[in-house]
Amino acid sequence: MSHPVLFCSDCGDDRPFERPPCSDGHGVECPELACTVCGSAILLGTDPPALPATPVVSAARAPAGAPSPHGPDPARHRAA
Ligand SMILES: [Zn+2]
Ligand SMILES: [Zn+2]
């Protein structure tokens, strides 16, 4: 169960993959798998929501970045 068979683009064929030691702190949810034949690494779950970095960046940006859909009004700046 720990060796899912997936297509390896390096081998050009289906290969058993294993989860390599994760150095990114993903733990059991690490999306990284490595081909047991050639060692080529792939990521599971290529959907954007599955990537840990993307939601973190947008969440941090939202409160600081966009106060209104119109943004700062350039005409006001020039008048003042
Ligand atoms: Zn990982
Ligand atoms: Zn391979």
From TrEMBL:
Compositionally biased intervals (Low complexity): 55-68
Sequence segments annotated as region (Disordered): 49-80
Name of the featured protein: Uncharacterized protein
